[in-house]
Amino acid sequence: MKLRFLITAGPTREFLDPIRFISNRSSGKMGYALARAACRYGKVTLVSGPVALKPPTGVTIVPVTTAQEMADAVLARFADADVVIMTAAVCDFRPRRVATRKIKKAGFSGVLELVPTGDILATLGKRKRHQLLVGFAAETDALEANAQKKLRRKKLDLIVANDARAMDAETNQVTLLYRDGRVERLPEMPKSQVATAIIRRVTALRT
Ligand code: CTP
User: Fold this and answer.
1) Over the stretch 169-202, which tens digit does the pLDDT of each residue have?
2) ∠ CA(42), CA(45), CA(50), 5° rounding?
3) What pLDDT is recorded for position 114?
4) Mind listing the domains of the chain with CATH numbers?
5) How far apart are CA 78 and CA 29, in angstroms?
6) 64 alpha carbon to ligand 1 midpoint, in Å?
7) pLDDT confidence bin for 30, thresholds 50/70/90
8) What residues are annotated to the active site?
9) Residue of 119, 132, 139 to mutate, ligand 1, most atoms within 8 A of C-beta
């Protein structure tokens, strides 16, 4: 059976003014590698934040910038997806106000007021019907415990936990935590191989 994959990758940007933004550290490499690996199993849509990577051939790219744009793009395509994999490093906060003109140094108070963005994956968890939901958790501490909490809270089928030091790197060592309680630790491998391993397991869960 051909599966329809919806994959997100890269960071989002949350603007203060037309020049400045806050963002997350993310190269997009893991998400792009997953999109490339998923192509062999079906149709792939990749909702991508700003990254310096070439889109894989055969993949439909939807470029977005902010967390809100990513949420809109994902929610609009959710009903038609069989597997959703959120690798994106979505900003958890955005500036309360976005100035339409450049904030001048002399006029800046030094305080930046932030408000939470919506949690895309948690929203999908509430709305899911036939879809298989896969999340990522990049942690600096208590990797498995934190990933386990996210798996439950966001109602995921699988969460891929990795050390935050994998960001920007060419390799990754991930631990897979499944909804049924199974935990599987994969060896450190190039991100392309990690991607293939994840897609194989996801397709096995879906069929
Ligand atoms: N995620 C999302 N929407 C957000 C934040 C995160 O969909 N606004 C997704 C990420 O793409 C990832 C998963 O949720 O698949 C976990 O993201 P992470 O930043 O590790 O978790 P948070 O829920 O933001 O928790 P915390 O910041 O407390 O670690």
Assistant:
1) 889 999 999 999 999 999 999 999 999 999 999 9
2) 145
3) 98
4) 3-98+111-206 (3.40.50.10300)
5) 23
6) 17
7) very high
8) 24
9) 119
